[in-house]
Amino acid sequence: MEIEDSHLTGLLQVIPEVLAHDVSFVSELKSRTHVLEVKKGDYILRTGEICKEAYFINKGLFVNFYIGEKGNESVTGFASDTEHPFLSAIGYFNQKPSEFGIRALEAGELICFSRTNIEELSMRYPSFAAYYQNVMLSIISKLYSLFAIRQSTTAEEFLRYLYDNNLWMINRIPDKYIACYMGISQEWYCKLKKRVLKLN
């Protein structure tokens, strides 16, 4: 879908003001991106595919997952239009078949950047290059931090952490996906959820 000014509203609110107010940059941004509408359940990236694009989430909720050798799916992270709105996979940087997949948990709308277009924008606008690099590092940092906290706490302690620091996940993401992310059954997750709610 061809991109319109309204599609860029959310992105222009989070990038540096110097870029958002640069008519030349905004014009190039429009010409180098496109809009992708997705339905609930659509795959943005399947395991084994090469991730050719990075995305800004205008609308929607997405899950990152890994499929093990036995075919079991493990949830590795989430991104939404309100939290962590930039979406991609490690394979985007090395252009190797991805070990991870991305799927829509809600109908949504994405602004798509090809790797080539991001590199070209980065070369022409150093402030964009710095911003994008910081965004990617921030995403990786948050993923590792949550993983480290989960590994060093009990399931109940981690759930309390989510309530205190990532309530959006509890409120928006279906229970079965958070349970999978935590590595526990949905039944056990629901019991822990009730216990934590009673103590809050």
Describe this structure in words.
This protein has 200 residues and is α+β, with helices and mostly antiparallel strands. It has ten helices and eight strands. It has a four-stranded antiparallel beta sheet with strand order 1-8-3-6. A four-stranded antiparallel beta sheet has the order 2-7-4-5. β4 and β5 (73-80) form a beta hairpin. α5 (115-124) packs across α6 (126-151), α7 crosses α10 (186-199) and α9 packs across α10. 25% of the residues are buried. The mean pLDDT is 90.
Number of helices: 10
Q: Which strand order do you get reading across the main beta sheet? A: 1-8-3-6
Q: What's the β-strand tally? A: 8
Question: Ends: how far apart?
Answer: 46 Å
Q: Which ranges are low-confidence, i.e. pLDDT below 50, for 5 or more consecutive residues? A: none
Radius of gyration over alpha carbons? 18 Å
| Portion in helices | 40-55%
Most strands sheet? 4 strands, antiparallel
What is the approximate shape?
globular
Our estimate of the beta-strand percent is: 15-25%
Helix and strand pattern: HHHEEEEEEHEEHHHHHH
Question: How does the helix and strand content classify structurally?
Answer: alpha+beta
Question: What number is the mean pLDDT?
Answer: 90
Quickly describe the structure.
The chain is α+β, with helices and mostly antiparallel strands and 200 residues long. The chain has helices spanning 9-14, 17-20, 23-31, 91-94, 115-124, 126-151, 155-165, 167-172, 175-182, 186-199; strands spanning 33-38, 43-45, 53-59, 61-67, 73-80, 86-87, 100-104, 108-114.
